């Protein structure tokens, strides 16, 4: 049984796009159809950066029900015909009871509710629809991977290709070589089930990836020139922003082209979705480094194992690897400030742990403690090609400082081993559960695109796959909330200090409470629409 509330939506929630219902022979739809909305509804600047998105599709229902819907081709391309979904005659699926998703199914963003809580925000449930907006031989799809590597990229590529081919009979699928810039600067790679058959067993991406090089006009020109009508874009928060401007430009040009985003990031910092693919694999691999650090540390007198893990702005990998391993005595993440010297500081804690236990393990996320690093040693203001701030190496900095402290104070002789497995945890193939997850993501993206949805990111929300508007996943980043239970569990498991004074802790708590109260107040005072906007900035997953 579905745990999602499935009452039929009131008629006013039904969007035209779902009910046009025209089917019949394919009347050679032109690839380019001028859209019916004013061109200045959206502005693109031809490159990275600011853009004005067209209005969100928000519908309201009873008891504070809000549907944040995703765009559909029929929103701007008139008179599109629909076709029977070929899955209806696919022997594997035709026997499945209720294989097609009811068009009224939506997925709740918030599932912990009170008696009087408004029903809140919902997203359109992902999955195959009875009717599709593309004929098999009309589809010309492309796949691109952007940003840093992540376990499972190849699995997603494989499953998009196989899903399109086996489920929808699509034969024309192109790989874009080397990220966004590949659209206009490289040759394409033809993809077939045979080409992708074994790729899920390899780390990395067979398509290559890159940062920077997002030139919206050139990318959309290339899509238009090649006659591509389904664009699958796999990448992190930056990539989804890029996908969003591509979608806006496609819409502005009135093209019958869908843009589907598949969220990818090792840091697990993408808002709204439960978790990003590859994260579990990375956490599992991080265990190996932590295990080695522990073995090294416990084999010598006053051994300290220090492991640096990825996590630019969010400490999820460090937090989960710490919780999973149970060998870690201290976990440092970007969200939780710490200090070295003085009472209650890190040096104090190390000394205490070594006296108690004879050894200890510290895990540090790469984005932690950046503000502590001496200005002279900072790579001030440097950015990568995508505009992401370049971080200073907190691992070496911490290692040097701990060693120097114990050498200077001569309190005890310590033996520190520093392990940096950062790239090792993301360059590996995905594990079994991530492989299954990648398959669901890819298939959900394919079903959504075939059904004519566009401008969406696909992902699980409370365990159910949903189509989420781009703006929802790009407006905020998912971060560890240090006043939540999960961080408390970690503190209880490592026994480390919180490094926050009671005053700071109270302030942090108040900030979070204020955000919650504001949310409720704005709902009560101004109605659900305001809440929709406000919730964009308060996506704090456990
Ligand atoms: N605001 C933006 N508008 C358009 N394109 C963008 C924007 N931000 C980033 N991009 C493009 O998206 C691509 C990937 O961005 P980025 O390097 O930040 O990685 P990411 O997708 O965030 O993944 P990760 O951080 O997990 O490695 C790059 O080609 C970059 O040019
Ligand atoms: O060295 P690269 O490829 O730029 O990637 C490093 C960054 O990419 C990530 O893996 C994902 O954003 C971060 O954890 C890390 O800071
Ligand atoms: Mg990013």
UniProtKB/TrEMBL annotation:
<protein>
    <recommendedName>
        <fullName>ATP-dependent 6-phosphofructokinase</fullName>
        <ecNumber>2.7.1.11</ecNumber>
    </recommendedName>
</protein>
<dbReference type="InterPro" id="IPR022953">
    <property type="entry name" value="ATP_PFK"/>
</dbReference>
<dbReference type="GO" id="GO:0006002">
    <property type="term" value="P:fructose 6-phosphate metabolic process"/>
</dbReference>
<comment type="function">
    <text>Catalyzes the phosphorylation of D-fructose 6-phosphate to fructose 1,6-bisphosphate by ATP, the first committing step of glycolysis.</text>
</comment>
<comment type="subunit">
    <text>Homotetramer.</text>
</comment>
<feature type="site" description="Important for substrate specificity; cannot use PPi as phosphoryl donor">
    <location>
        <position position="238"/>
    </location>
</feature>
<dbReference type="Pfam" id="PF00365">
    <property type="entry name" value="PFK"/>
</dbReference>
<keyword id="KW-0963">Cytoplasm</keyword>
<keyword id="KW-0460">Magnesium</keyword>
<comment type="pathway">
    <text>Carbohydrate degradation; glycolysis; D-glyceraldehyde 3-phosphate and glycerone phosphate from D-glucose: step 3/4.</text>
</comment>
<dbReference type="GO" id="GO:0005524">
    <property type="term" value="F:ATP binding"/>
</dbReference>
<feature type="domain" description="Phosphofructokinase">
    <location>
        <begin position="142"/>
        <end position="447"/>
    </location>
</feature>
<keyword id="KW-0547">Nucleotide-binding</keyword>
<keyword id="KW-0021">Allosteric enzyme</keyword>
<feature type="active site" description="Proton acceptor">
    <location>
        <position position="267"/>
    </location>
</feature>
<dbReference type="GO" id="GO:0005737">
    <property type="term" value="C:cytoplasm"/>
</dbReference>
<comment type="similarity">
    <text>Belongs to the phosphofructokinase type A (PFKA) family. PPi-dependent PFK group II subfamily. Atypical ATP-dependent clade 'X' sub-subfamily.</text>
</comment>
<keyword id="KW-0324">Glycolysis</keyword>
<feature type="binding site">
    <location>
        <position position="237"/>
    </location>
    <ligand>
        <name>Mg(2+)</name>
    </ligand>
</feature>
<dbReference type="GO" id="GO:0003872">
    <property type="term" value="F:6-phosphofructokinase activity"/>
</dbReference>
<dbReference type="InterPro" id="IPR000023">
    <property type="entry name" value="Phosphofructokinase_dom"/>
</dbReference>
<feature type="binding site">
    <location>
        <begin position="211"/>
        <end position="212"/>
    </location>
    <ligand>
        <name>ATP</name>
    </ligand>
</feature>
<feature type="binding site">
    <location>
        <begin position="310"/>
        <end position="312"/>
    </location>
    <ligand>
        <name>substrate</name>
    </ligand>
</feature>
<dbReference type="InterPro" id="IPR035966">
    <property type="entry name" value="PKF_sf"/>
</dbReference>
<keyword id="KW-0479">Metal-binding</keyword>
<keyword id="KW-0418">Kinase</keyword>
<keyword id="KW-0067">ATP-binding</keyword>
<feature type="binding site">
    <location>
        <position position="148"/>
    </location>
    <ligand>
        <name>ATP</name>
    </ligand>
</feature>
<feature type="binding site">
    <location>
        <begin position="423"/>
        <end position="426"/>
    </location>
    <ligand>
        <name>substrate</name>
    </ligand>
</feature>
<feature type="binding site">
    <location>
        <position position="366"/>
    </location>
    <ligand>
        <name>substrate</name>
    </ligand>
</feature>
<feature type="binding site">
    <location>
        <begin position="265"/>
        <end position="267"/>
    </location>
    <ligand>
        <name>substrate</name>
    </ligand>
</feature>
<dbReference type="InterPro" id="IPR012004">
    <property type="entry name" value="PyroP-dep_PFK_TP0108"/>
</dbReference>
<dbReference type="GO" id="GO:0046872">
    <property type="term" value="F:metal ion binding"/>
</dbReference>
<keyword id="KW-0808">Transferase</keyword>
<feature type="binding site">
    <location>
        <begin position="236"/>
        <end position="239"/>
    </location>
    <ligand>
        <name>ATP</name>
    </ligand>
</feature>
<dbReference type="InterPro" id="IPR050929">
    <property type="entry name" value="PFKA"/>
</dbReference>
């Amino acid at each position: 049984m579905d745990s999602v509330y499935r009452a039929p939506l009131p008629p006013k929630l039904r969007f035209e796009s779902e009910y046009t219902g025209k089917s019949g022979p394919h009347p050679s739809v032109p690839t380019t159809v001028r859209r019916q909305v004013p061109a200045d509804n959206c502005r693109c600047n031809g490159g990275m950066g600011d853009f004005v998105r067209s209005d969100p599709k928000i519908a309201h229902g009873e008891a504070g029900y809000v549907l944040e819907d995703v765009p559909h081709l029929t929103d701007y391309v008139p008179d599109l015909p629909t076709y029977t979904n070929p899955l209806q005659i696919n022997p594997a699926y035709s026997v499945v009871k209720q294989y097609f998703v009811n068009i009224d199914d939506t997925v709740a963003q918030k599932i912990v509710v009170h008696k009087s809580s408004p029903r809140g925000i919902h997203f359109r449930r992902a999955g195959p629809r009875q009717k599709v907006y593309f004929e098999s031989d009309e589809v010309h799809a492309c796949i691109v991977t952007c940003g840093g590597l992540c376990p499972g990229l190849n699995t997603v590529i494989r499953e998009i290709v196989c899903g399109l081919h086996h489920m929808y009979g699509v034969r024309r699928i192109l790989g874009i070589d080397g990220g966004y810039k590949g659209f206009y600067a490289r040759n394409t790679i033809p993809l077939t089930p045979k080409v992708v058959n074994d790729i899920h067993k390899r780390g990395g991406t067979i398509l290559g990836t890159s940062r920077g090089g997002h030139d919206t006009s050139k990318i959309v020109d290339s899509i238009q020139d090649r006659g591509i009508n389904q664009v699958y874009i796999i990448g992190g928060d930056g990539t989804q922003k890029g996908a969003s401007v591509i979608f806006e430009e496609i819409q502005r040009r009135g093209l019958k082209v869908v843009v589907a985003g598949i969220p990818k990031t090792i840091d697990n910092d993408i808002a709204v979705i439960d978790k990003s693919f590859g994260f579990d694999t990375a956490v599992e691999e991080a265990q190996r480094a932590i295990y080695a650090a522990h073995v090294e540390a416990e084999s010598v007198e006053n051994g300290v194992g220090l492991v640096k893990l990825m996590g630019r702005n969010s400490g999820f990998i460090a937090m989960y690897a710490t919780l999973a391993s149970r060998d870690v005595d201290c976990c440092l993440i970007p969200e939780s400030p710490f200090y070295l010297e003085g009472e209650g500081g890190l040096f104090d804690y190390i000394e205490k742990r070594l006296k108690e236990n004879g050894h200890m393990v510290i895990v540090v996320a790469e984005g932690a403690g950046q503000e502590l690093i001496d200005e002279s040693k900072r790579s001030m203001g440097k950015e990568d090609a995508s505009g992401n701030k370049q971080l200073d190496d907190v691992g070496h900095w911490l290692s040097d400082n701990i060693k120097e402290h114990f050498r200077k104070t001569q309190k005890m002789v310590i033996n520190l081993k520093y392990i940096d497995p950062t790239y090792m945890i993301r360059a590996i193939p995905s594990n079994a559960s991530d492989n299954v997850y990648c398959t669901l993501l890819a298939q959900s993206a394919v079903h959504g695109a075939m059904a004519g949805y566009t401008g969406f990111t696909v992902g699980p929300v409370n365990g159910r796959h949903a189509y989420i508007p781009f703006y929802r996943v790009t407006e905020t980043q998912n971060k560890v909330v240090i006043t939540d239970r999960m961080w408390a569990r970690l503190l209880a498991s490592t026994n480390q200090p919180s490094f926050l004074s009671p005053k700071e802790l109270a302030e942090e708590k108040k900030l979070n409470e204020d955000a919650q109260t504001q949310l409720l107040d704005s709902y009560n005072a101004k109605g659900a629409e305001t809440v929709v906007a406000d919730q964009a900035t308060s996506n704090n997953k456990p």
